[in-house]
Design brief:
By secondary structure, this protein is an alpha/beta fold. Helix content is about 30%, strand content about 20%.
Length: about 160
């Protein structure tokens, strides 16, 4: 329905997102397969919550599937930037919904984002960082409800800037 609404081609995630026999996303196979298929499209709508398992059946992500899919697709097409749209205006030093004085990171490194995620920050799972980081693609966290907000840029930079 979203592809029809946006008048964009639909690409079935089962055709490009691969899982290994043990149910773990197969990043290398996905990037290769998706790269070959997606280079034939200028834009496309791709569901983010499933792929195919080793036997060709449908396999769903346990959590964070759309974020992981977005990062894998960005790596597959060698994007300049992966924008991850969510319900907050970036990455914060504490939960902005629980603390009125939370400060947003303007920029943060992949490693610092991984540490924050390990400490409970739910804005982006570590598995969603891997494909983009390995491909050297920065990630911008943006708010779907406040698209004009700057968000947070996650990259290889070794800087943190709280505002």
């Amino acid at each position: 329905m979203m592809a029809a609404l946006l008048a964009r081609p639909f690409v079935d995630a089962a055709e490009i997102i691969a899982f290994s026999e043990d149910g773990v996303p197969d990043d290398a196979r996905t990037v290769e397969t998706a790269g070959l298929l997606l280079r034939t499209y200028e834009t496309a709508v791709i569901p983010g919550f499933y792929g195919s398992d080793a036997s060709g059946g449908i396999h769903t992500f346990s959590r964070g599937g759309s974020d992981i899919t977005g990062s894998l697709v960005a790596a597959a097409v060698n994007a300049d930037l992966y924008e991850n749209w969510t319900d907050v205006s970036g990455v914060y030093d504490r939960d902005p919904q629980a603390c009125a004085h939370a400060r947003r990171y303007r920029y943060i490194s992949y490693e610092d984002m991984r540490r924050l995620a390990g400490a409970g920050a739910a804005v982006l799972l570590p598995a969603a960082l891997e494909p983009a980081q390995q491909a050297g693609i920065p990630i911008r966290i943006k708010n779907s409800f406040r698209p004009g907000d700057e968000g947070t840029l996650i990259s290889n930079g070794d800087y943190e800037e709280l505002i």
